[in-house]
## 1
Amino acid sequence: MDHLSELENKSIFIIREAYYRFKDIAVLWSIGKDSTTLLWLCRKAFFGKIPFPVIHIDTSYKFPEIYAFRDEYAKKWNLDLIVGKNEEEIKKGMGPTKGAKLDCCNELKTNALKATIARHGFKALLLGIRRDEHGIRAKERVFSPRDENFKWNYEDQPAELWDQYKSTAEEDNHFRIHPILHMTELDIWKYVQRENIPMTELYFSKNGKRYRSIGCKPCCSPVESEAATVSDVIHELETSHTSERAGRAQDKEDAYTMQKLRSLGYM
Amino acid sequence: MTGKTENKTPKVLLVGLDGIPCTLIGDYMEKGLLPEFKKILGDGFALHQMDASVPDVSSTSWTSFMTGVNPAEHGIYGFTDLKPGSLNIFVPNSRNVAAPAIWDIIGKTANGRTSTLHRDYSGAFKRPLRSIVLNIPQTFPALELNGILTAGFVCPDLRKGTYPEKAYDYLNSIGYLSDVDSAKAAERKDEFFSEIFLALEKRMHAYEHFLRNEEWDFFAGVITETDRLHHFFFDAAYDAKHADHEVFLRFYGELDRVVARLYELFMDMTDGRGLFLTMSDHGFTTLKEEVYVNAWLKKEGLLNLDGRKEYFEQIDAGTKAFAMDPARIYINIEGRYPGGSVANGEKEGVVNEIKERLMKLTNGEGRPVIREVRENRELYSGPLAGKGPDLVCLAHDGFDLKANLKKDEVFGKGHFNGMHTSYDAHCILPKGVEITKRLHIENLAGIILEHLKNGTAA
């Protein structure tokens, strides 16, 4: 079997197992390339119709192209779309340009997701994160049974699906499942090419610039690039060495830092 | 023991043990809980009590360790600071460290940064020496050095926190954890315990890999998990009836083995002639009550906040002073901050008034809270003294000072059961290293440089 089919099979297996195991499950969709690929895989896993809700956490600061893409494909793919929004904080004026930007991600993403999970009682979430993506994500790992000495027997893990979950700091009581954890940025683009998966135009060069990673408009900056098509992007990735998230704002790191400091009683 | 000029293997191995108190090591050795530490001491090493930096937070203390100078030279006064001339909070990172670290001095990568220590040693090394620096706080993002570095707390991105890229690839491949998830400690402690054991194991895995497979002259590896364990469970350290006492001891048992393993590897590599040392950046004691300094300043009428804003931008007209974590007090001087309301001439009066009132602060049972209030000029000397706090408070053991702006009551208690101490850090050094006065964390860089210099001069 070729590399991409192998990756696809692995992801589809995880998605089906997750659905089989949890009734109250949803998939998180940021409209970015990874979660859109995840959505594509979910559609393939269930022959075109995803049998569970798709959550979009809306900070109200996303690119207009993101909203347009979301609405277009929610309709085309017949998605059961749930939009999660922290209306209260948005009303209060929370935003990345407000004096202290450090709480913006926390309020508008983390807390909005928390509330959405609580409201709908989801027991598990499918997430499109990849291990090679970001330092914080590298910590996002597969979880294995613990022995009585509180040790993970990580070197001798049985190769089974339920090693793959990891709950995180911010949301309690639900499993997080990462069906594309094993893919790299380049795998994603090659798969996008093979499957002809639609992607928001933000990823493709306009006037010498494109976005390599997308999120909220005020906190993302484009990278210099002439890559105007999926094959251009693949070529660019094969020949460049800059970090994928180089265009994401400092604020994201700062937000993480603040959360860490708070967890130790500072701030 | 350390060898002086005759030493042909000048290597230095430093094991940093975040927040391990000197008294705890002594007590645990006496109880037979740290057999390997005891063996090391039996090989000709001495355990010293050591002073941490003031304030005794990891970012400041580790920076004082790695640069060998005080905050007025290195510029790091805490995890957070304010941008010059403003009330905007920011998180200083490695780029804000104004003095070169040990590895910059020996590796000749100071790149324009200098310090009193740097001036003493910049000409001491004929060839640039190579360092492996693992998990020292306040080193994110990783700056170029002659060697390898992976940043300690806070490291929001392991790739950016590691130099060079190849070292990142290795760490990523073994699932190295730059930190555990402390937020779990209160709610899901089993998971938290699992993580600290796992993180320790990963660190040992990585440290041994670099120790064996890389060329180096100076190797520093820090264990952070002790600090995390202590913050939440220090009350279990001595209390045999405590539900988590056994896990606490088990972690120390594991740590004892990890330190011994590094020690033995190093002694084998250097035929027993390298300089081995362990140290901590501060001590720990049991936390009884949290004390919110800004709530106290509010009650005393010295601080006014505008709740519609955030963090320090809330500071409103008429404010005389405010505090940043843990208990750095800044006088709201005209011209230094927007809306500053204390004229330069009035500053001394305000300082004295705050000192006097703080020393009278007592808790609900009438116990005095503050041990000492120290002024900037008593603590700091160097070009960046002006960036520092005007006052720093040190509390009696049990009272943990915090600068949370959201609290209204002066006293409280959360889920933290341990607090830092400034006087009970530890250092284990060969007896051959002459110590003439009480050790301070800023002294260690000089001891290390002296050893490397004597070794390479031969």
## 2
Amino acid sequence: MMHEPLEPRPVKTKFFTPTVIFITILAINGIIWALLRFVLGIGAVTNLDNQHPWGIWIGIDVAAGVALAAGGFTTSALVHIFHREDFHVLVRPAIMTAMLGYTFVALGVLFDLGRYYNIWHVPIMGNSTSVLFEVGICVMTYVSTLYVEFFPVVTERFMGRVRMGGILSKLNRAVDKLLRWIDAFLVKTMFFFIILGVVLSCLHQSSLGTLMMIAGHKIHPLWQTPIAPLLFLLSAISVGFPMVIMESLIASKSFGLKPEMDVLAKLGRFVGPLLAIYLGFKIGDMAVRGTYVYLSDLSLPSIMWMVEVLFGVIIPMRMFFWDKVLQSRPLLLIASFLAIFGVFIFRFNVFIIAYKPPYSFGAYFPSIGEISITVGLISIEILLYRILAIIFPVVSQPVKRLAVNAKYKVQGVFR
Amino acid sequence: MNTQSRREFLKTAGLLGAGIAGIKPKEAAASPVNIVSDDRMGVLVDSTVCIGCRQCEIACKEEHGLPVGSLDDYMDRTLLAEMRRPDTTALTVINEYPNPKNPDQHTDLKVQCMHCDHPACVSACIVGAFSKQENGAVIWDESRCIGCRYCMVACPFQVPAFEFDKALEPKIMKCDLCYDNRTSKGKLPACVEACPQNALIFGKRYELLQLAHQKIQDRPQSYFDHIYGEHEVGGTSWLYLSNQDFASLDFPDVGTEPMPGATEPLQHALFKFFIPPVALYGLLGGIMWLGKGNKAEEEE
């Protein structure tokens, strides 16, 4: 191989930088508002009312959050199911981001639930006709699956290195043994969890699109379509790789590493066709249902639809088909951002813009509290990414000394 | 690199598959009570005889333990002109509209939960907290609710209200057709009992429909020829007669298809014996397995 060999290792960097301090402040602000929400109730912190039962906590934290965590299942499907080993270096960061993303989707839901302490009702009382139940149960199962998929990184980090102090030191040997047993178990069974993760993702990514269908005439016809589940699934698949590219470019810059441009450019080649398929169905649906008539009225929904499709699908699609973009770090970053923006705004449009209650006493605009908590959750997620990348062998880096102990090399799913 | 043989792959897949099938929430996920009985009850609202006295509002609050406030406030008719909606302080409200047939008079209209025959809330609720009872009442079960407010998103009439001001145990509140203490025991709903004008008639839904058609036939000059609720969203237990088009009375045009009609077939297709997920699992497993074989051959 002409490249230097790469190996995932804990990143050596200091935790705080000016940007990190700024993000920490946003996180603390979010935590303060979160406390207020739990003490004073949803009404005191949000602009939600009986006409607007769902706001950005569902539209952004949950719906967009789930879509933007699609990097996990798309990358693991590419590498492990379609055996594209050349993208191996991207799997760990992608799985970790998905794990964090889904964990925060689950947390985000808790803020929005009036009786969050009853969340355990979902698996035992679930209503089989409820789309929300299907989404909920799939997300719950998939979060667990992602933890399992990430666990080999934990065993790799700590096998043979369990050194707990004090009274716990007696347990060191037992914990190490347990880690080795789990690791051996996961090596044998990981394929099961990989496939399960992809199946669960396909199920709930599409069901997320079915979610608002029951609102019928309350959803603007531009988005109220029987193929909403398909559009949600296709858009989630198309945004997976741009998310991985964006994270990789930003993380490598933040950690002072060289970005894997050749791998990322190769990954970028998948994005154009995927976006094209999604766009095809989106435009086809519009033509079949004749909803283009709504575009001429230049209302908020029609403008948001055009922004979504033009800046979020058509322009990034054209960019990803362009070699010059794929080779250039800033252009690739911009193209990825646009594709991410497109899916983000798609979810935002369906859950917020398209929703028009039959009796409206004013439009919904998120409160400072809602925005603070949403921004806070994202900030904590970014900080956790940094912490995990410093603790665990996730980000691939050039290997300086090749004679690493073979026993601790890449394990399980990442083999 | 490959520590597993194909045989081992299949064996593990089978074992784990059996395991996960055991924990799938299939049995736990039951459909809620959703009965469309032929004898279901309903209420016919004849808005042409309603005088907007708001006795129904007072009776409803008393029945449901909500603060009634000063009775003098109910005499203030200026309040009626501004459209109100049922909320956590009042499960039913009266709105007043201009009367096109007689400019000196008004059209008064009581609004509350419509008690759909195919309720979106029952279909949507994640934990089955809503149910459609045999007598037609759509009720909410506090002991199940997790406060997700999907019922409010689903409701075509935007009826369920949520106690946004409560940090703990917020309730979803809406008309329950006085199910617990009255209609399940053969008594009249509180509002119907309180109405001095007989503008509200409680009875079997099919009989109410006959009565409503009869009324329109007998006095066509008084009525707009439409019974709101007869076919709307597949039919509702509450039926309305009016002297004018319901669109001008803020009744939404909801179509005649039941709201769950679009999503439930999709859900059922997906979950029927778990065929699609299992098929997808098999397909992906097959691709993975075949690729694995090719890779092993390359390496040999």
